[in-house]
């Protein structure tokens, strides 16, 4: 009996009834809690919550039902080929183990768990997501694809959908998952090329923007913003200036450099603070800042406060700006440090050559008026 089995047997008998299954080496246990379901073409894909009893961490236990054991073995070999070199990237799900259960004709894989579920589930739940967040997700997905496609033998996902991309709702981090699992038989039989994933990424973008699940290219008519529409068209290769031939389609790396995804306007809002700061370059020497936060009036009603100011890189310092700001606005002195950190992040990002912002800036306060609390 191996050490994993010893640990497994050490579990309380009452807990045993909650355990639906164990991995062949007994290191991983599966619960009956279903996290997600999918499938199609005669296949079923169910994701359960599991536990690594050695590390004491929760994991995702994926079960993919296939037509026959031979096909399952072929898929497993392809999956093992994909994962033979550990994939280490912040936007790709980590895989720990995989095997075929010939009796039930299922492929089982163990991977890291993202408690917020798939990007499809998350987007369906949160319909008011801003385009800034969608662009942030897009950049992360493309970075993951760049990593997969950059291997000597490019790793092709082959079935990239919002259902196979997972999100951490607390941090906004997304990761590509289900590598080799969701591939339909027809896909497996085709010659793989990275542009397959790029096209699928375009459909993912269309879904994130329109909230339509499993969208088709003709759904582009629902995209009202022309810049967003043009970007998705470039992903799908549907614009006249781009040929539909594989050789001329844009790569994930090229799309990542697309002006549409440039981080010129972004949000350094930290969830641990009450402040939200946004900034935009006015020119090489100045940045337009907008700082917002919530207060309460005497009646307890929420009030949105907002100030707008210009920061001159060669003449101002965040220290003096924030010190004057908290004094005039009656904010706690410790807020100066928080606001200053947010400003520094913006300045370094928008003015890369600037390392230490430097003296004084006047700002104007703009009250947005009372807002209701939901």
TrEMBL record:
Domain Protein kinase: 33-261
Catalytic activity: L-seryl-[protein] + ATP = O-phospho-L-seryl-[protein] + ADP + H(+); L-threonyl-[protein] + ATP = O-phospho-L-threonyl-[protein] + ADP + H(+)
Record keyword Transferase present: yes
Keywords: Kinase, Serine/threonine-protein kinase, Transferase
Superkingdom of origin organism: Eukaryota
One annotated GO molecular function: protein serine/threonine kinase activity
Signal sequence coordinates: none
E.C. no: 2.7.11.1
The name this protein goes by in its record: non-specific serine/threonine protein kinase
Taxonomic path: Eukaryota, Viridiplantae, Streptophyta, Embryophyta, Tracheophyta
